[in-house]
Amino acid sequence: MAARHRPTPAHPPVPKGELRDGFKFRSGRLSLDLPATLAGRLQDVPRDLLQAPADLGRWLVAAGLATQMQEPSAEELTQARELREAIYRLGMARARGESFSARDRAILNRWAAEPPPAPQLGPRGLLWTGAGVRGQLAAVARDAAELLGGPFAERIRNCSQEGCALLFVDTSRSGQRRWCSMAGCGNKAKVAEFRRRQRADTR
Fold first, then answer.
1. Per the structure, how many domains does the chain have?
2. InterPro entries attached here (predicted)?
3. Mean pLDDT, to the nearest integer, of 52-60?
4. Could you tell me the pTM of the whole model?
């Protein structure tokens, strides 16, 4: 009698793309994607995409740090927001050539010292296991410390598009990238320039 073949267990796909479950991933680095969860930073009333603990759980999955939804605590949500803002201010300081805030460095370093999750090679790519929400935030903090103190620190940029406050790492050969996303802000800028030229031609 032929042996039965068990079906291969389904694995969640590795998240890809710039937009995942309502969050933007355009920076090229995990640590700079966390600050993008505060939308409309330059507006009078920014919109926090991490409104509830479940939102943080969704972001961790979208970021590829968790394979399934978790239940972060309210305290972990508050801590994630604090880490997010510290990373943003540190990134802006680096982009502007300014000194780092001692307080923000302390927040980042405290999180980077936490035990991180373990990287594992899954059937569809990199997975992170263990350590829970705190460990996943530690992985974000470690990435930020390595970025801000490493060779790509000089490539941290602030998007040039009016109204966009996203930070990104310029990995272009020329080092002249201006927008967080060619498909997003880059396209908007090109459309605006095209319309400006059209108006000029009709005068």
1. 1
2. ABATE (IPR010852), ABATE_dom_sf (IPR023286), Znf_CGNR (IPR021005)
3. 97
4. 0.83
